[in-house]
Write a structure and sequence with these properties.
The chain is an alpha+beta fold and 386 residues long. It has helices at 2-16, 37-40, 42-56, 71-78, 91-102, 107-110, 127-130, 137-150, 179-185, 197-208, 240-252, 306-318, 374-385; strands spanning 28-33, 60-65, 84-89, 115-119, 153-162, 169-171, 174-178, 214-221, 224-225, 268-274, 276-280, 292-293, 295-299, 328-332, 334-338, 346-349, 352-355, 359-371. The protein has a 6-stranded antiparallel β-sheet with strand order 6-5-18-15-8-10.
């Protein structure tokens, strides 16, 4: 571990030793650290493995530690300009930071700030997309921190989830509602059963109520065409004589026809009864060259035996948004989920628990740019070419 830390620090020092012009300000990085992540070990993991790399790299680093759940959302409202945002924690910290960021009045400008993710939590879904798999925790954290310095980014989709009264919540992986999610939350209660705790949690949930059905009405719109990438740098202003010529041409040209009325949106309706419903972004299998933007809605068949439920529940602990055979899969850019009155239970939004209620889920394609390991970006582009 110490050899890995030393090698990463030497690599970071090469960035710190680069000369900058006397007039150029230092790049500011704001780190949102959740010390409670990873059962309270996150603070120590950050100080030992990530902080030295960031300080050696020549960044002007500000570390903001969160003391309680929801604090990151409030702190983001007060955040001043920064060149980088770094999230050090797990899925819950990512969700809080992006929700606070996208609730700001000036979110159009702030959403262009690149975001780094240092995986320190118990569940770190994004790290599978952004960084190579590593069995060694120190190597995984140092790789993620060095990826921020290397500057390669990928655009990620975001889901905007809005209830009737609440402010919207934003997610990068997705929303789950159903029996597998409910059983998965209770796995830690059976810690004393060791490796059998996952199977036990799913088995005991079948004893309470069976078959387990979740009924709702779903309205959705199909995928949307992806617009071309906008150039990042603005084109230089044309010379005066070109601007005058354009102004005169537009003045003398014939008046433009009135724009035609926009066709009403074509909503599809569906009544559903399912054991679990999930709405997921494409961030898990990122395709940088796809021509359509959509989220995956997976409606699982309710006719499942107890044995299948226990087996599939174990698989879903590893890959929560897997869509088993026999499920109905829908591609949509926007959907409205209506629940019957008196529906109890909870949604899992990016592995965080929220009360189940009627919601509108809207896809914000390529909304945020996250730093990623250059090797992963290369793999994505190669896979797209093949």
């Amino acid at each position: 571990d110490n050899l890995l830390r030393r090698a990463a620090c030497q690599e970071a020092q090469a960035f710190g030793n680069q000369l900058i012009p006397a007039t150029a300000p230092l790049k500011k990085a704001t780190v949102f650290l959740n010390p409670a992540a990873c059962k309270g070990k996150a603070g120590n993991l950050f100080e030992k493995n990530a902080a030295p790399i960031l300080h050696l790299s020549g960044l002007d680093v500000t570390v903001v530690k969160t003391d309680y759940e929801g604090q990151a959302k409030k702190l983001l409202e007060l955040m001043e300009n920064t060149d980088l945002i770094i999230i050090a924690g797990g899925d819950g910290t990512v969700q809080e930071v992006i929700t606070g960021l996208l609730r700001r009045a000036d979110e159009a400008a702030f959403s262009k700030i690149p975001i780094g993710f240092i995986p320190l939590g118990k569940t770190c879904t994004l790290s599978h997309t952004l960084y190579p798999e590593s069995a060694n925790q120190v190597q995984h954290i140092t790789n993620a921190t060095l990826a921020i310095l290397k500057g390669e980014t990928v655009p990620l989709d975001v889901l905007q989830i809005k209830g009737e009264k609440e402010q919207p919540v934003f997610a990068v992986s997705g929303l789950r509602w159903g029996s597998y999610r409910d059983a998965g939350v209770k796995v830690s209660k059976y810690w004393y059963l060791g490796p059998l705790k996952t199977k036990a949690a799913h088995f005991f949930s079948t004893l309470k109520e069976w078959p387990q059905k979740h009924q709702a009405a779903l309205m959705y719109l199909g995928p949307t065409e992806r617009p071309p990438e906008e150039p990042e740098e603005k084109a230089s202003r044309p010379p005066l004589h070109v601007r005058l010529y354009r102004r005169l041409r537009s003045y003398w040209s014939s008046p433009k026809a009135f724009p035609q009325e926009v066709a009403p949106e074509d909503w599809e309706e569906l009544k559903l009864s399912t054991i679990e419903l999930s709405i997921a972004t494409q961030n898990r299998q990122l395709d940088l060259t796809r021509t359509q933007d959509f989220m995956d809605i997976c409606i699982e068949a309710e006719s499942v035996s107890k044995g299948q439920f226990v087996h599939r529940g174990t698989q879903k602990m590893r890959d929560p948004h897997m869509c088993p055979e026999g499920s109905q899969c829908i591609q949509a850019s926007r959907c409205i989920l209506q629940l019957p009155e008196g529906t109890e239970g909870s949604f899992g939004i990016d592995n965080e628990e929220y009360e189940a209620m009627p919601v509108e889920v809207k896809l914000l394609p390529r909304k945020l740019r996250f730093f990623c390991d250059p090797r992963m970006r290369e793999q994505m582009l190669q896979a797209a070419v093949q």
